[in-house]
Amino acid sequence: MTAELHPNTTVEAFDSAPYQWTRETAQTVYELPFNDLLFRAQTSHRENFDPNKVQLSRLLSIKTGGCPEDCGYCSQSAHHETGLKASKLTEVRRVIAEATKARDAGATRYCMGAAWRNPKARDMDAVVAMVEGVKALGMETCMTLGMLDLEQAARLKHAGLDYYNHNIDTSERYYSEIISTRSFADRLDTLELVRQSGIKVCCGGIVGMGEEPVDRIEMLVTLANLPEHPQSVPINMLIPIAGTPLAEAKPIEPIEFVRVIALARIMMPKSHVRLSAGRTAMTDEMQALCFFAGANSIFVGDTLLTADNPGEDKDTLLFRRLGIEPMELEAQ
Ligand code: SF4
Questions:
Q1: Of 101, 192, 202, 317, which one has the greatest count of Cβ atoms within 10 A?
Q2: Is 203 part of the annotated catalytic residue set?
Q3: Chain-centroid distance, C-alpha 168
Q4: Which atom of ligand 1 has the smallest separation from the CA of 70?
Q5: Which H or E run includes 223?
Q6: Given the CA of residue 114, which atom of ligand 1 is nearest to it?
């Protein structure tokens, strides 16, 4: 179904999976008066989720730095002089110990990220053992390891992997401005393979990389027109890192960022929209607006893969002030 947005178009009209978004329709929603946009997003949010519950994920870098890819935003690329020291793959027992601590602190999903273009055959046994070990703790498991082949995806699924994170980062048009070592189509290929393997998809992008508003809109159109909406949609606000090509990128204006969250919520009403990297640069009020616009997942802990994140105490305090509670695993 394709439809132009009529002022009376209800949010339910966008719920059904075969709804094919056009850039024009998405742009019309994105440019609605702010209060109308937030009202639509919040209405959609309430129809699909408890508006006062936010899912907590914890992220661990299991292999840091030295990545052969050249993503312009990333401190871990071997192409950029960021001073980050490359490490080897973390031992399985250390990963399980860290996951246990995260579970005991309230996280229900454990995300493990490796700075690879793709996993090597020799790494797969350890990666599989990590998934099995974290799963045995009663947590949801998520990994981000770069491009996968079908056999690797099948092994991960068999080990109990719930989610695979593979972001499309930006629009197809802007992609080559940010990354030259792989294509937008490569990303879509891995996403399709992950979906076919029965692993849930975590896929979003980054805003504030010098892109135009239309790139943010087109990124969301690509995500919303996948055969299934990604179950998790992380929206990151760029943390500019010295030594990367995007070190001087102009920050996105907060109201624009909230519009992106609201549009993601309206276009993918049943997905968890995650407020990911960049929360350290957001005020409490901006985060509160993002939650109102439909964000219902965050990363907790002091660090993301390599960047700072608000500590648990700060998040607990913000949740208390907003009357937000962590989402239980059963509700996810
Ligand atoms: S974002 Fe991932 S793939 Fe790109 S350089 Fe960083 S670690 Fe490598």
A1: 202
A2: no
A3: 10
A4: 5
A5: helix 213-224
A6: 7
Domain boundaries along the sequence of the chain: 32-322
CA–centroid distance, 88 to ligand 1, in Å, is 15
For ligand 1, the distance from its centroid to the CA atom of residue 304, given in whole angstroms, is: 13
The CATH homologous superfamily of the domain defined by 32-322: Aldolase class I (3.20.20.70)
What is the distance between the alpha carbons of residues 198 and 109, in angstroms, rounded to a whole number? Answer: 18
* Residues 80, 246 contacting (CB under 8 angstroms): no
Model confidence, pTM: 0.89
- Going by DSSP bridges, is the β-strand pair 272-275/205-207 parallel, antiparallel, or unpaired? unpaired
The finding on whether 114 has its CB within 6 A of some atom of ligand 1 is no
Is 244 a pocket residue for ligand 1 (Cβ < 6 Å)? Answer: no
Token pair, residue 300, equals 């907790």
Q: Looking at ligand 1, which residue's alpha carbon is closest to its atom 5?
A: 77
**Residues near 64 by beta carbon (within 8 Å), at least 6 away in sequence:** 76, 84, 85, 86, 87, 115, 305, 306
